[in-house]
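Risk register update: the risk of archive-format incompatibility is retired. Evidence:
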Amino acid sequence: MDFLTELAVDKIGFGLACIANLFFFLLTLATRVKNLPKSLLLSWSLLNTIWAGYYIFTAVAPYSSTLSISLELGRNLLLLLFLLSALGNAQQTLWQLLQKGSVQLLIVVMSGWTALCVFQLLSTNLIFTGSLAICILQLSLLEAIYRRAAAERWQYKPLVLGITVCALFDFVLLAESAMFGQVDNQLWSARGFVYAGIIPLLIISVRRVQAWGINVYVSRDIVLQSSLVLAAGCYLCLIAVAGFYIRYIGGNWSNLLQTAFWVLGFAMLAILLLSGAVRRRLKVFIEKHFFANKFDYRQKWLELTRQLKLIDLSKTEQYQTVLYAWLNAIGYQRGCLIQLDEQKNFNQLAIIGRGKLNPDELVLLKHYVQQFEAKHWIVDLSDNKDPFSQQHQLNNIDIQLIVPIYSDTLLWGLCLMNAPDVDRQHLNWELRDYLMLVSEQISSYLLLMQTSEQLSENAQFVAFSRMSAFIVHDLKNVKAQIDLLLTNSIKHRRNPEFIDDSFETLAAMQKRLENMLSQLSNKQIAAANNSVFTAAAVVTEVVTQRCASKSPTPVLNISNDGQLSVDKERFASVLFHLIDNAQHATADTGTIKIDITTDEHNLIVQINDSGCGMSEEFIQQRLFKPFDSTKGNAGMGIGAYDALHFAKQHEGQLMVSSKEGIGTTFTLVLPLH
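Archived output:
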């Protein structure tokens, strides 16, 4: 409590002046423009900050110490240089300003006067009298600026007004001090408050003056916080004055009464600063009376964008996130997001801060849909003059704003919003346009989410269809083996070796059918079953058993054999489809050659035919496109696609070269085991 008892009003005033000038310094420093007025204004505000801070922490009488005199005259000199630069060209440099005779004379006189004051070669009365001349010079320069501004006078008016107030206050203070030989304590206590109070005028002016290009930006939150700090400072001053008065008249009870008053006063201040309702009311007051727009649209749009980025299309609470972003866009706490089906029934997608729609609200919304379905109209139910509000009893309605959501020209749904009376935004042209813009932005996300769900379902069907196509493709292989088995059974049915081979073939087909049924049950393609085998043996088996029944019969040439570590059945299936495609493209009198060779790391299988060939355009656009077949209903269009996918899956290659009317060569390259 020692600090409270020593609390002085002048300290509080200079504290506010120090904070205000520091804030103005940082605000101006953040601008990118570089010119002489800005530099001098920065220097003056920084020196004012130091000047105010000096008087906070010292008990030295003004104009009585070397540092006090230096700070007073230094800030006056900087202010005069700033005013002289404001009278000239904003693009001039400091060197150009210093080359002027009037400026040089001013610096010499101010330097000599400072030396006389610092070395105490003058009496106190003369020091105060000389400082009066500086105030008169400041006032004359301010008058010149205001007069020369002419049509741009409104830009300079806050600056001239603010600095003039300070200059006149200093003139009165110095005049009385020169008369009585000392500074008046009451006027001195008010000096800090005066210098703190002119900062808003300076901010307005430097933003207006286009010649300087200092475009400062002050957000609503900064104004709110600054207003709270200023109000708290004024409140503390009142507490201090009242506390000293109580001490003065309190007699024996003075210390007790003063302490109790200060404790209760600080408690009341804490309650007011921490009260959400007070802060909201102050913010609404500031936005209504100090800003042209209802919202800080840059900040609101950034917040809306950040909220919408949080939407996760894979989670069920995505609509809750959308509604929260919508409510936060205007600072509301309660809302409901609903969608209309084809029968105009309401599907509640998300609810925040309220219960489900009650029967009265459902009736009201049905009337809204009937009346405004095609009008893109936002309704404010708190507006007693609105005809729609007058048609309904609103006692059981927890809705203020009804915002429509459209998909093209059709009403997709509604967003219902409400808030306590202190936070409510009354619908006007600005809020209506803002809500329509937000509605368009959010509705695009809602439609994207709905489309994403449909695409996800379609993708599952496509994946299942693609899997079914591969299975049908494999079934064709099984059928080809059965056809071959039946064809050979006519000649070899009594041959024991043929019967043994038939059972082995049937067992392989039974295993393949089990794999296909498993894929259909699990809705996914079976994992690869790799094994190590000799490539030439599998190729020979495919040529002699699966492809021998068609013409022309392939001719196999094995230069070098090698071992592979892949899915044997899949490898055989890929070769069969490549050879089968070659047979379909080649006349019965043509030729098909299969060459097997190896290099240092790979097995190379070349399938060369003398068929009709393919154009380069067909190879690029259609050959490896799934479900695109030249065989009509006889083909599935996935043979070449499956072969290419198989080669890439095993870090190999499938290359094709072809000329129309001459033939085609497929080259399958797979890494050796």
